[in-house]
Amino acid sequence: MQEFEGFTPGKKHFTRIPDEFFTELLPQIDDVNELKLTLFCFWALEQKTGDYRYLQRQDFTSNTWLMQGLGNNAANSEKALKAALQRMVARKTLLEATIDVDGEPYTLYFMNTPKGRTAIQQIEAGQWRPNNPQNPVEILPPRPSIYALYEENIGPLTQLISEALRDAEKEYPIEWIKEAIEIAVYNNKRNWHYIQAILRRWEQEGKSREINKTNSGGDGTQYASGKYADIITH
User: In sequence order, what E strands does 6-118 have?
Assistant: First the structure.
């Protein structure tokens, strides 16, 4: 057995795993390769960008760490990968869809999340296809957590703020929270109520791709008007 040298010091990029993995999914998994592949999917999808993140077979086979962990040679690794994928699809941890791009089939794997289910529904309805189906996983540079981003740009992490950020993580995409913090900084409205108002407005009215720091209004009135005006501290 090769010994693990331990986690190294310094800033880390952490992979988010839903609580349901530990409380519902993990007790059901009885195959070590399925477990390895499930954890890999959480990590690999974090390396993706975009609203609808998916994996393809090449994302698995091109990852040396994963394939070495699945078997002692290429043939065994391929066999183990195929079996583990089948188990994950059968368990519905992964949702599978095949699309046709210029006459060539592509099989996409989505995690069984609300966005993953939406993607599958849209594919089945012919309403969505990826811009670039050949997009292998790339290891992205570490991205600061919303806690670090808040502390560095807005203010100290009190217990109430930490709880608010934790609740926001469950309700909104991480990218939304980070962009809302950036907008608050740009408009010099460095408080949580302002950030929260942006998120609520996006949730209720839709987040337009055109919304950004430059057109949000230098005085913040785009987000500090209407039903949110009474909760924003100017």
Answer: 94-101, 104-111
